[in-house]
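quick one if you have a minute, typing this from the bus. theres a chain ive been looking at and ive put its sequence and its fold in token form underneath. please have a look and point out which stretches look like helix strand or loop to you. anything you notice is useful, everything is just below.

***
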Amino acid sequence: MQPDNGPGVGPSPGEAAAFLLDKIRQGNGYARGKKKRFARSASATKVATLVLSAVSTVILGLQNLNAWAGLALACVALVTLLGAVEPFFDWRSRWVLMEEAQYRFQRLADDLEYLMASTAADELTFDQLSLALSRSVLSEG
């Protein structure tokens, strides 16, 4: 029989499951926040490129307006800059990556919650936790 405290005593399987579930939820929250940020960045870049392209096209279509032609040239330069910035930061693929990470975190949380709900706290073992998590991770890859 092990003492209740001292070196070598870790959390019970139920406490470990609750801890893992909390960490999974934190990871899911992190992925959700990043996903929103990447989605906004990707969308803003696309909208800015579209608006500047349209404005410069309309302005260049007008005749005999030198000040407007200068503005259109600036818009075209910004479109070129945004066209170069977007692939560098690659917001869309990062957005998709965070969507996938969020799905995997939710899948892990669901599997762990099911195990905790279907097994009595005193019957839960580390082997069951390990098996449930490895099954969830392996089914993704």
User: Anything to note?
Assistant: The first helix runs from residue 13 to 61. The mean pLDDT is 82. Residues 13-140 form one domain.
